[in-house]
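Pseudouridine synthase RsuA/RluA-like domain-containing protein, pasting as requested.
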Amino acid sequence: MIEPKIIFEDSSLLVLDKPAGLAVHGFPGNTEPTLADWLLEKYPDIESVGEPESLRPTPYALLPVSRCGLVHRLDRETSGVIVVAKTLEAYLSLKQQFSSGSAEEGYEGRPRKTYQALVYGLMKDDQGEIHRSIGRSRVNPKLRIVGAKASGTSRDALTYYKVLERFNLLGKVESFEQEERRKKKEGVSDFTFLECYPRTGRTHQVRVHLGSIGRPVVCDKLYAPGKPCLPGLTRHALHAASIDIMLPTGERKVFSAPLPIDMAGVLENLHKASFEQSTKHEI
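Structure tokens follow.
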């Protein structure tokens, strides 16, 4: 089993660095251990922490699912910080934080989450916001989409972003022909590394929002099908870098997880490729 690393632990709270590839909960067809399994093995009493067991539909039956102190989730392929309550009091305190606010009132009371993502193409603006409601796709229930084509009721979703680096592997544009070449190769030769700050917590929110503006996460098989992955990546390039929360004691704390080796290696390769391209252009 791929095990998480403990970032912080006290009598009421557990903060983990979840590795990519580890699912938080089980799902139909999954036979691999999950984060919930790990929690139950290491902290048996945590099974009763949270809301009453819900029933999750499978192709065969409705299976009970325990919360195991989990107040929020990360996608299976997303690495990084995840918070677990060890007591009911801590769970209720955290749940109140995660659910506070609304589209009308704003979301200032919620924990502040920071994600790091590598996307295809060059982001035009250094920073900005994506405020688009998210709902389930009518065509594929695994997909979430923005706009009127969503099935059922869409929910308000807000993500801010800030560009950290741009990687232009085609070099300086000097002619119309080169600009046309860039357009044809965009998403293969241009990349942007950025931070995202989701103020709401919709399923796949960061991935959906970035895809909705034409800048999907690199190697995202669900929202960027057919686009090539970069060498060294076998999962989507999204990492939950930090979370700023209020502890049950009233103290405010920020917990962080370093960029994992796979994403760090890809960025290093992009730096090298960008340097080589700029040197070639200067010559």
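Note for the archive: Residues 261-282 form the longest helix (22 residues).
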